[in-house]
Predict the 3D structure of the following.
Amino acid sequence: MATATSVKQQKFTLNKLPRMGVSVADLKIEDIDDPELRKQLYDLYVQEGLILFKGLFGRDTLVKLSRVFGDLQDAPLSEWHTENPEVMEVRYAPETGWRMELNGKEVGGWQPWHTDGVYTKTPNRGGIITCVKMPSEEGGTGFIDKMESYDLLPEDIKEKIDPLYAIYNIDAIEGFERPRFGQQAIKTIHYAEETLNVYNRRHTFPEVAHPLVITQAETGRKMLNLCPLFVQRIEGMDKEESDGLLRFLVPHATDPNRAYIHYWEPGDMVLWDNYRSLHCATGAPADEVRLMEKTFILGDYKLGREL
Ligand SMILES: [Fe+2]
């Protein structure tokens, strides 16, 4: 039902989400080839960085909707491909998933704040994620706006980090279990086979450097381009200085008071700008299945560099 703040566009109903992004309801996928509708949605994506679509179902719809925002690329890690490599399955099952202890509780499907593909020199521009099998409780997906994170930095820090690069590697196990800069740590009870596969071939991924500050091409707005998971150090700094800066920036970039946590309902699809936001998964009961599907929207990011 539309609220007082709803805006009825030509072919959908728009509402603000708390803290980041908008929701789009009443959109019919049959209308998706309409050029005017595609432009409206694309412009919203650039302005808001996050769109929650309501009432859309199925993998074909997921792919069709994703193509409004760009060409698709294959998911970077083949361990989670479906029959269509453009669609990745994010799965947790009690027997086979990465089962962990967090705050004294057993959970599955938890992921700390991150940007997808930051361990490559060309992260995807964005993606759409949908929940195929929901747990009975929890299982949220969180988002934080990296533009706001930049805007809220003290001026001297903005100046200091402007020319700097952060260095990343793909070791998720280290990032989950032994985060060094203020992220929460988990204790593993059981690893997923896919996670161990990636871990065993981690040396085939070179370290990469990304600028700490990037600019949105369409608007000139700046973003704090820091991914707390996978970050190792600041290029050109000694360990003490680098660790000190990251111990300040990581808690700032992941302030829970600025996060929008989405709890899934049937028919939800969430589009996020992967350059502009961090995301996380809050975890779900360890004895329940959680199954998500997501796409990777190709970007034109040319700022990453392999070391
Ligand atoms: Fe992710």
The radius of gyration is 19 Å. The mean pLDDT is 94.
